[in-house]
Design goal:
Length: 212
């Protein structure tokens, strides 16, 4: 398995919850690995069901089985998978906090529980650790329309130091496929993490400059 090297390797936790849009999380993971980063993946039970339904995958099994399946899919051994209820995982402790946590897609239920300071599973605990240790925390909420409660929870998390990055792709780069839209959101996530990438053409950048 081969991956490109990165000048400064980050450890990024990527969590996929039960909101629609698992493609955004999967594309972000692949982009991070291609950029040389280390990824720890968390998937909620609902997130795994939605992911399999939306992508046609058939990922199931315990943590070792899923780890093998996911490493084969992404062709990288720098991907670790932790069970949703494994609160003994290293990333559950502030003394071993990752550099960043990305929840993509993020359900409003997950948003609400994290905003309330709950840590009943490893996704919530990882986000809680990121907030208390002042690490980067990026939410990619997937819901529309948003209720007042949703907005208040998002505002509370933003004030606590998290970045809210809704799955709202731009169209100025003239996307031609769903993959182009996935690339745009994954690229914005990497922008938030200050990781260089070429996932989409930036506004004001001509094609030749971008492709070089």
């Amino acid at each position: 398995m081969s991956d490109s090297n990165s000048a400064e390797r980050l450890h990024v936790v990527v969590a996929i919850t039960g909101a629609s849009g698992a493609r955004f999380g999967l594309r972000t993971i692949r982009a991070l690995l291609e950029c040389g980063q280390k990824v720890s993946l968390l998937i909620s039970p609902s997130g795994l069901k939605v992911l399999n339904y939306e992508t046609g995958s058939e990922w199931n099994g315990d943590a070792p089985e899923l780890t093998n399946s996911l490493r084969a899919y992404f062709q990288s051994d720098r991907l670790d998978y932790y069970a949703y209820d494994n609160l003994f995982a290293s990333i559950a402790s502030g003394s071993s906090a990752p550099d960043a946590v990305v929840i993509a897609p993020c359900s409003m239920g997950t948003i609400g529980r994290i905003a309330a300071g709950l840590s009943s599973n490893l996704i919530e605990r990882s986000a809680d650790v990121a907030l208390k240790e002042r690490r980067q925390l990026v939410f990619v909420p997937r819901e529309t329309p948003l209720s007042t409660i949703h907005l208040e929870n998002l505002l509370r998390l933003s004030r606590a130091g998290a970045q809210i990055l809704p799955a709202m792709p731009g169209y100025y780069h003239h996307p031609e496929s769903l993959s182009d839209l996935d690339d745009f959101i994954a690229g914005k996530i990497l922008d938030a993490l200050q990781i260089e990438h070429h996932l989409f053409r930036r506004w004001g950048t001509d094609v030749q400059e971008y492709e070089s």
